[in-house]
Amino acid sequence: MTDDTRTPGIHHVTCIASDPQQNLDFWVETLGLRLVKRSINQDDPSTYHFFFADAEGNPGTSMTFFPWGEQTGQGKVGSGQVSRTAFRVPEGSLDYWEERFDDYGVDYDERVERFGETVLPFRDPDGLPVELVEVEIPEDDPTAPWTEFVPEEAAIRGFHSVTLWLVDPEPTEGLLRRMGFEEVGTEQAQGDTPGDQRTRFAAPGSVGKYVDVLPTVESGRQGRGTVHHVAFQTPTDEDQEAIRKVARSEGLSPTTQIDRHWFRSVYFREHGGVLFELATNGPGYDSDEPLDDLGGRLVLPGKFEGRREQIEAGLTDVTIPRAETADADD
């Protein structure tokens, strides 16, 4: 694969949640990410789809959720899943985050060192395993910190990595190499990860560039607190088709391109069962809302706009956290 058809890294990660208001409150107010799109699951329009990202919704920064409601069963992380999603935070900011987690009652673990970086593991209200990783943020970094709730010197700056749990990592590692990732290190796994060795692969981009692979025989089940799929950047249609052909040549079954309104997507399950998406970088979250108003209204893409009254009637009312409201409640 040539340099111009490699994925630069992660585009977004989509997860399953329960209560939509709880999900909004945690990811916007507690973690300080911006709600850049409030929409519906285009495959199940009775459910919200929330997109949390940096201030501009740049590729490599958006964590998205299907909040399926309180009736959603608890998931269990296991093989064939993204077991951990990690975000970058500026060097020296983990003291701030531990204090904030104490103030907000967030469940977190002791810091660990991984590949020379300091990692703070925690869980969201649905039990989703998440991590913050201290990194040096360069002056020309392509992310834009959102600072309504968290100061710039601590704000989350897009993805650092995802960790895949796999029964047999070798076929997936081969696929990652063909997608443009390079193996950059192996070390003993720490914490509650079940594998003996963690292998890290790096894409050529600067945000969301790492995929870690761990062997496990731990069984899992989809539900709240688990990742639904991980999407990788394929900036153009040509990039996407090139990697789609790679997936087909590996004996996998990628879909045809699907228009997701803010990007165009291809989906397939990789060899170990993890659902991969290939997502273009455009049109972008600001293609249907002004940048200053991202997330301000319920956006119903394409054919769904004509069903707005019916769709809105079936959705739970939610309130978007605002800093001035939070200050008034203190």
UniProtKB/TrEMBL annotation:
Q: Which Gene Ontology molecular function entries are recorded, alphabetically?
A: dioxygenase activity
Alphabetical UniProt keywords:
Dioxygenase, Oxidoreductase
Supply the name of the protein. Ring-cleaving dioxygenase
Q: Does the keyword Oxidoreductase apply?
A: yes
What species does this protein belong to?
Answer: Halosimplex aquaticum
Query: What InterPro entries does the database record attribute to this sequence?
Result: Extradiol_RC_dioxygenase, Glyas_Bleomycin-R_OHBP_Dase, Glyas_Fos-R_dOase_dom, VOC_core
> A Pfam family for this UniProt protein?
Glyoxalase
Residue stretches in coiled coil:
none
Domain VOC: start-end pairs? 9-135, 158-281
